[in-house]
Design brief:
Helix content is 28%, strand content 31%. The protein has 371 residues and is of the alpha/beta class. It folds into 3 domains: 2-41 and 89-146 and 251-295, FAD/NAD(P)-binding domain, CATH 3.50.50.60; 151-247, D-Amino Acid Oxidase, Chain A, domain 2; 301-367, no CATH class. Strands 1, 2, 8, 9, 10, 11 and 19 form a 7-stranded mixed β-sheet that branches. It has a 7-stranded mixed β-sheet with strand order 6-5-14-15-16-13-17, sandwiched between helices. It is globular and about 65 Å long. The structure holds flavin-adenine dinucleotide. Residues 11-17, 34-36, 38, 42-46, 113-114, 141-143, 242, 244, 246, 261-262, 273-275, 278 line the site of flavin-adenine dinucleotide (FAD).
């Protein structure tokens, strides 16, 4: 059994754990990262304001200044004059971060899952099968428990050769509602990303009170493919897949130390988008504030309030989401929509958004905190 002390210990080698390690190492701090190598395929998408430089150019799969939403009776297209929608290769980003960190003399890597962690006196003790570490600061990115009012965003995506799809998409369909709704207490849609000229990601997604079997989401993605290819489905069409389940709402950290990433509320409650929240948390990371920025919600009070109301409405009646997204996407320009999704919006923008929404369910949600 190895026993040693590290000033900073980070648990979990997902994107948050690795990015936090990089921030700390760049500040000259000594860091130990504990957890299995995270090889999961993750296509991470986010809007970026054109004025802000991308930090991840090496991992950019594609970038678009248009995106659209398909409803049963209309298609809503958005143009981004100020914002781009970008897809990053999360798997290659994690690999590059592991490599960069391994070259730092201040970095130690323990490639084992954590069995136990606890606070003792003014520090922490973390145990794996072969090591016991003590740490002054402990940051933990292991998945949190979802709060009792939190919705789940669950998705299963298949990546297929673009040639199988009849309509040649040159930009993403962020929400396609053309397949019938099929799950109780869930809003289901398909998300289609033309990753490259050769490959397209088709992802079945739900905003729901509880999860469904991943196989049901996979079948939904296949149904979209069959409807849009005119060919019979063949397993050989699937090049690879990716899946996940993100919190929409509060999370409850389960472990000792400072929660980080998804465990500290980096996922935007109304959408599950998590990368921009994590970037905000890390950009505010300072030793002086006791690292509290990584454990605080990165979203503004205005967006937190709007998200809470939105989630109350959606939780009560998930399929009302169809009407809400139809109204919201037709009432807002591409830039205003992207601004809202990235928490770059003013009170006037918020009022403009509110005027697009169906009144009765929202008034009820504002007046009554019904669960
Ligand atoms: C397939 C997929 C697609 C996504 N797409 C988007 C997107 O388009 N846009 C967006 O903004 N966000 C997206 N996300 C969210 C994305 O997860 C986050 O942006 C980012 O991964 C932050 O996650 P995290 O590191 O906080 O948590 P996680 O990714 O959940 O990482 C937690 C880590 O903890 C590790 N762990 C678990 N148990 C232990 C243990 N006992 N000991 C040590 N380590 C442990 C796991 O191995 C994992 O590496 C996506 C997520 C997935 C999975």
């Amino acid at each position: 059994m190895n026993t040693f002390h590290s000033k900073n210990v980070v648990v979990g080698a997902g994107i948050s754990g690795l990015m936090l390690c990089e921030s700390l190492v760049n500040r000259g701090e000594e860091v130990t990262l504990i957890g299995p190598v995270d090889n999961r395929v993750q296509t991470i998408c986010t809007w970026r304001h054109k004025d802000k430089p991308t930090q991840y150019a090496d991992h950019l799969i594609n970038s678009w200044d248009q995106w659209e939403f398909s409803f049963s009776n209309h298609v809503q297209k958005h143009h981004g004059n100020e914002f781009l929608y970008e897809a990053l290769n999360g798997q290659s980003l994690k690999k590059a971060l592991e490599l960069r960190l391994s070259e730092s003399k201040n970095f130690t890597r323990v490639v084992e899952p954590v069995d136990r962690s606890k606070a003792i006196n003014s520090c922490f003790e973390v145990t794996t099968k072969n090591s016991t570490l003590t740490a002054t600061n402990l940051f933990d990115s292991r998945p949190p428990q979802f709060g009792s009012n939190t919705l789940v965003q669950q998705f299963f995506g298949i990546v297929v050769p673009t040639r199988h799809i009849k309509e040649k998409l040159t930009y993403p369909k962020l929400m396609d509602f053309t397949l019938p709704q099929r799950f109780d207490d869930a809003l289901a849609f398909t998300y289609i990303l033309p990753l490259t000229a050769e490959t397209t990601l088709i992802e079945a997604t739900i905003f729901a009170r509880t999860t469904v079997p991943y196989g049901a989401l996979r079948n939904m993605a296949i149904e979209w493919l069959v409807n849009n290819s005119g060919e019979d489905f063949d397993e050989d069409m699937v090049l690879y897949d990716e899946s996940g389940c993100l919190p929409m709402g509060n999370v409850v950290p389960l472990f000792a130390g400072n929660p980080i990433g998804l465990a500290s509320g980096s996922a935007r409650p109304c959408s599950g988008y998590a990368l921009s929240g994590l970037q905000r948390q890390l950009s505010e990371l300072t030793q002086e504030n006791g690292y509290s920025s990584v454990t605080c919600s990165p979203y503004s009070k205005l967006s937190a309030w709007m998200d809470r109301i939105f989630l109350r409405v959606l939780k009560r009646e998930p399929q009302l989401g169809l009407t809400i997204f139809a109204a919201m996407t037709s009432g807002l320009s591409g830039d205003r929509f992207a601004g809202f999704m990235t928490d770059n919006f003013s009170t006037v923008d918020a009022l403009r958004l509110i005027t697009t929404l169906p009144k009765y369910p929202f008034i009820r949600a504002v007046l009554k905190n019904d669960h």
